[in-house]
Write a structure and sequence with these properties.
By secondary structure, this protein is of the alpha/beta class. It has a single domain, classed as Protein tyrosine phosphatase superfamily (Protein-Tyrosine Phosphatase, Chain A, Alpha-Beta Complex), CATH 3.90.190.10. It contains 7 helices and 4 strands. The chain has a 4-stranded parallel β-sheet, with helices on one face. Helix 2 crosses helix 3, helix 2 runs parallel beside helix 4 and helix 5 crosses helix 7. The N and C termini lie far apart (about 35 Å). The model has no long low-confidence stretch (mean pLDDT about 95).
Length: about 200
């Protein structure tokens, strides 16, 4: 996201946070479960700006675990606005976005920020970058649908997500059983519907 003076982007899970403490991280977006204790590792990072958002990684409301809401994605976009507004105050930057495993919420958040900060960028190009950055990316479809609507992408971001799912299923067959086990069959179906027969 060089247009906003952020030249390095990282996605990871909580267990990987210690490996990034000496990587010059300047900005952190933490997307965590509401009940999850805050990782203490950030006390060992160099001075940085950090925002914490808390919501669950599901795609349908479950008892005690509601799906992400439009307000949750609006909070991600509000964070993106702070990056845009502060770009003149820095020459460079390293943004780290993490969730529990660095698979779903964090990748959806990074896609949302990239689509926001580079409004003319092609959607498939964004997903290609996400796969290069995080090969295990399986973005939360509810979050992407809200981002698509809020950014006025007119369904293009969602369509690119479905193509991404198809690519991931072709690259690694374990995604199907993994996501089915997490009750994400609907997302698996989106990808399988586009696969060649």
């Amino acid at each position: 996201m060089k247009p906003i003076a952020i030249s390095r982007l990282t996605i990871c899970g909580i267990d990987e946070l210690p490996t990034h403490r000496s990587h010059g991280v300047t900005h952190v977006l933490s997307v965590m479960d509401p009940e999850r204790e805050d990782p203490a590792i950030f006390g060992n990072y160099d001075p940085h700006e950090r925002t914490i958002l808390r919501f669950h990684d599901v795609i349908e409301d479950k008892e005690g675990r509601p799906a992400p809401t439009k307000a949750d994605v609006e909070a991600i976009l509000a964070y993106g606005e702070t990056l845009i507004e502060s770009r003149m105050d820095r020459r460079d930057g390293h943004l780290l976005v993490h969730c529990h495993m660095g698979v779903s919420r964090s990748t959806a958040a990074m896609i949302t920020l990239m689509a926001q900060c580079e409004p003319d960028r092609d959607e498939d190009s964004i997903f290609t970058t996400i796969r290069e950055m995080r090969p295990i990316a399986w973005p939360n479809s509810v979050m992407i649908a809200y981002a698509d609507e809020l950014l006025g992408r007119e369904g293009r971001l969602t369509a690119a997500l479905h193509r991404h799912y198809a690519i991931q299923l072709e690259r690694d067959a374990t995604f199907e059983s993994w996501m089915t086990g997490l009750e994400r069959q609907r997302e698996v179906g989106f990808g399988k519907s586009l696969q060649r027969t």
